[in-house]
Structure formats: structure tokens, C-alpha cells
User: Fold these one by one.
Assistant:
Number 1:
Amino acid sequence: MVRLQLAKTDDAPRGAAAEHIKKVALRLFAERGVDGVTVREIAAAAGQKNHGAVGYHFGSKEALVRAIVMDGAMALDRDRNAALDRLESEGGPRSIREVVDALIEPVLALSDEHYVPFIVIFAMTHRDMMLDALDPAANSAYGRGLDHLRRLMPDLTPALQNQRFVFMGAYISAVLSARQRALTDHSREHPMWGSEASVEHFLQTLVALLEAPVDLPPSLLKGIGKRGELVPQVSGPVG
């Protein structure tokens, strides 16, 4: 298995050919994982006669992966920040549900249906590389959302809040990745995943996860936050 080492680059490839290569590569990475796709396969699937097209436009496969990670991250961060800006301008957010909507609706509105499955797989198989590719400045809105959630969850200690946020991130990634994988499978219908009712039910269960009362004996409560649990892991672009 080839192990990627992401190269730092500030280059920003432009042009229709580069954008098409990114779109095709994103689909292939979502389907097979980053290690399961070669640059020759990407070029061929993109209709490029020159097998060196990825290198020509991006410099390397690693730089292409970095560009794809950042494209989705910046789109999510922009739309999440805009939603939080609107809520704050109105004196909010006033409820956990408002914060949840601000974090989740931009994911559902992403223009490319393959980004969520791609980034979830990439985070699981190459977590350090995903975080290396992700500019923290392009993931600021998620932290803003967590700050609002802390304020809206005063009955939980900071350690319990952070544990809930770890659960929340895993839940968001797992459910939305499963949803997108189903919706990109055009071989059959997926009535549950395509239903607005299912999306609303997911949002309600996410709120319930955050709002649920704690019912742990004191002996267990004492252990929370004492073994590296005080700070949640850095989030990926989705959750």
C-alpha cells in the first residue's frame, strides 16, 4: 500500500482541466480511498491523454489531495460562519438546535456529493495527513459552534461537554457519510436516506445527544476528564 506524505504547496491550480481532474479524483478517492487510486487512473478517468496531467496541474498526487481537502473545508467554513454570523447578529444562537442547524445544513448543501465520504475515509486512514492538509483557518466555524454549545450546555462540566463533542463528531461523520454513500449509489432507490423526514430525525437525535441528562454514579463521573479527555480531538472539516 502506498503511503502518502502530503507536500506543502501554496500553488493554486486554475482552469477547467484542473477543476475537472479534482472532481474526478474526488469521486475515485471516495469510492476506493486515496491509496487505491493512481495518478494514471485519475488522468484516464478525467479523459486526459497525458498520464502526467496530475503532475502538470498540481505537481503531485499529494498536492491534489491537499487541494481537494481544502476545497470542501473552505466551502463548509464559509457557509457555517455565515450561518453563525446571522444568528449572532440576531442575538443568538439561543438553542442547541440552532447551532446544530448552522453546522449541519452546509454539509447537506455541499455541491459535490462525494466530499463527505472522501474526507471521512481519509480521516480514518490518514488522520495525521488530513490534519496536515487542513489549514486551521479553514475550520474556524466548527470551533465557533462548539463555543456556543458550551454556553448552551451549562449543566455539564467542561469534561462532559468535551466528551459529548467527541460523540457528536463521530455521529455526524458516520451518519452523513452513510447518507452520501447511499445517495451516490444510483443503481437503486434509497428512500430512507433521500427523505427530508430522515434528515430531520437525524438533526433531532443529534440535539438529543447533546441535551441528554447525565445519569452516571459519582465513581464514574470522577474518571471523566482524567485520562486525556479534557480536550476533544481536532475536528475534520465535517465533524
Number 2:
Amino acid sequence: MESFIAIDFDARIVAELSQIAGCLETHAHGGRFEPPENYHLTLLYLNELEETEAAIERLDRIYLDSFELRLNRLGFFANADDHVLWVDVKRELTELRGLQQAIDQAMAGLYAPYDQAPFCPHITLAYGDAFDKEWEQMASACPVPASSFTVTSFHLYEVMRTPAGRRFRKRKTFLLDRGRSHGE
């Protein structure tokens, strides 16, 4: 099954991302905007994962402290399939990269790497060819609030193909700070 590991967001951050996407839609000439329930920050794309139970066992051994991230700015890049309009994050990026590396190491040998691109943390809001000409204008019209959020967990997701497009189903949630109080 097509799978990935990611961080999701609380209702407040999803609402702010939805407001940004709504603003972008009013300035965009086309594009496919992600529904709010699809917002996430991918830590590792697994492509086709055959050994789900083995993956869960390995991921369940990751013990790290929770950390803070903050929405930062809009960005744009082209990948092999499409053009992507996204929001990146900042703040405790060392901790975020540590989590991503721990997941990557835990999953070694269980999946075939999809690509060798370096980890570039972002939240995809939309896909579309027109963005390469419009994204700077859209970025200036649609500011990103500097909203902070605490990362306390990560999730193993399964990609579901539906008539409305791709939707993501959580297979398992992995808590950070297990067995410790947040004050330690």
C-alpha cells in the first residue's frame, strides 16, 4: 500500500492553513487545492510499504522530546509530477530533522526510497502548472501568520484513491515524550 509518515496539525493550524489556501485560490488561475483534511508535513514518503507491522514495531521504538514549529512563509517548487505551492516551517528545525532522521533510520530496509531529494519540510497547499508564473504575486497577497504549534506525535498514513482525489488515512499514531511529563 502507498504510505508515508507525517506530522499533522491541530484545528487552529488547519484553520489558518485553510485561510491561506482560500486567499491563494482567489488569486490563482487554476490549480488543485488540497482539502484541509489532507494537510500534513511529510517526514518520509514510503511509496509501497509491504511490511506494515514491521514498520509499526520499528517506529514505536522512537523516543524523542516534543518540539515547537512555526508557520513561516509561502514557497513554490516544481517536482517531477507537478508544480507545488506550500508553506514551510521554522523554529526548532534541528529537532524536526532529528525526528526525520530517526524515522529514516528506523525504516531502513523496509521500503524502496522514492527519490534521493534532501528533506525539505513543507505543507503542500496546492498543485498546478500556473503557479510558476503567479506564486510571487500570490505570496505577497496572502501572508502566512507566524503561528506556533507543538509537535507531540507523528503518524503512519495510507494513501486512499477516491473519486474526489487522494485522501489520507491514519494507520497508527506514535507519541513523542512517552512516559515523561512535558515538564521534564
